[in-house]
Inverse folding.
């Protein structure tokens, strides 16, 4: 009997685009038929909700690590998978588990990465090392002036773009238990610093997502930009202007999340779906995927790629030392949506930072009460 196709719902990201690119032959050695349906970040969550509502049929879905894990596991939407091997970075392996069981098979680790033009930054303050503070990033922007920075300020991206700045004075969006603290003075002050950066960004930066920020950096339109480490392969792609002029570091207030594959609890071929997950996180595939995503998940991939991929040292430091996850929360998607919306309104000048954060907190608390 012919085997059924393993259907995968995936988010549009360089790692995923690499999996499905036939010229890279990532799937050519997997013993079975696989079909990827790939959706942009703006659409992905609603498409995934259709799977859990029984409106779409997929065996494997991509999950934004700790951001959604607890919610999905508690609702019975994910099936446990086998344990991960010791070559997976420990912090990533920890993110893949919940209540003593492993649910996620890591694909790539997205975290905040600063990319800058060395020739332009050095004259105004010297070059950063592996990590810099948001305060120093802001100082560089002030010294450089117009078009200094690319901001990922599209409404679908703006909360996580602003988050390192919300943390720069000791604030945060949530406390460790998930209680919203976005209206605290330290958080609001940090958001105001983020909003100041608009003075030093291109006029259309409110429309910038991953592709636009990558282009602004690689083309030299801006001197600096903060983007996801999973975009490094695109930033350093064949169209990059003077790639040797690019430097990399992370932020000491960074956030990251490991995009992972999970087996849907509603799949009728869970064992074969798990075989696919085992294949996609194998050492060979992780090294290949790391070359076009820029964000592998295995220790050995970083050890072997340090001399080839100049952002790997900062990426590894971000994962192991600096990145602070958000707390595991129920209704995380709904709660975070309030912050995306309110920060976007503040960025557009419709509200002050304080008013936006006060409104976001009240909206989150209302969600928690329902």
């Amino acid at each position: 009997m012919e085997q059924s196709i393993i259907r995968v719902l995936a988010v549009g990201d360089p790692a995923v685009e690499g999996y499905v690119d036939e010229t890279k032959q990532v799937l050519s050695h997997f013993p079975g038929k696989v079909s990827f349906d790939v959706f942009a970040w703006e659409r992905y969550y609603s498409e995934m909700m259709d799977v859990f509502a029984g409106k779409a049929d997929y065996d494997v879905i991509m999950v934004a690590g700790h951001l959604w894990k607890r919610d999905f596991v508690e609702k019975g939407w994910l099936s446990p998978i086998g344990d991960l091997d010791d070559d997976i970075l420990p912090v990533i392996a920890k993110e893949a588990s919940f209540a003593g069981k492993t649910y996620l098979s890591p694909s790539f680790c997205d975290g905040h990465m600063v990319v800058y033009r060395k020739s332009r930054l050095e004259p105004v303050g010297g070059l950063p090392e592996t990590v810099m503070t948001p305060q120093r990033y802001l100082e560089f922007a002030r010294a450089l002036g117009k078009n200094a920075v690319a901001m990922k300020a599209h409404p679908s991206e703006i909360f996580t773009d602003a988050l390192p700045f919300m943390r720069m004075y000791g604030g945060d969006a949530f406390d460790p238990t998930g209680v919203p603290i976005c209206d605290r003075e330290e958080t609001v002050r940090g958001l105001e610093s983020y909003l100041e950066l608009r003075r030093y960004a291109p006029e259309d930066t409110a429309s910038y997502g991953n592709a636009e920020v990558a282009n602004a950096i690689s083309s030299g339109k801006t001197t600096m930009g903060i983007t996801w480490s999973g975009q490094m392969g695109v930033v350093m792609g064949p169209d990059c202007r003077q790639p040797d002029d690019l430097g990399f570091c992370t932020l000491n207030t960074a956030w990251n999340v490991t995009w992972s594959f999970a087996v849907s609890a509603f799949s009728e071929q869970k064992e074969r779906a798990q075989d696919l997950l085992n294949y996609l996180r194998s050492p060979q595939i992780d090294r290949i995927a790391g070359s076009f995503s820029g964000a592998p998940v295995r220790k050995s991939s970083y050890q072997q790629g340090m001399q080839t991929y100049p952002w790997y040292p900062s990426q590894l430091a971000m994962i192991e030392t600096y990145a602070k996850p958000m707390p595991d929360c129920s209704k995380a998607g709904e709660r975070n949506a309030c912050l995306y919306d309110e920060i976007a309104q503040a960025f557009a000048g419709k509200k002050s930072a304080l008013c936006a954060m006060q409104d976001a907190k009240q909206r989150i608390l209302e969600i928690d009460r329902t």
Observations:
- The first strand starts at residue 6 and ends at 11.
- Residues 92 and 258 are 7 Å apart (CA to CA).
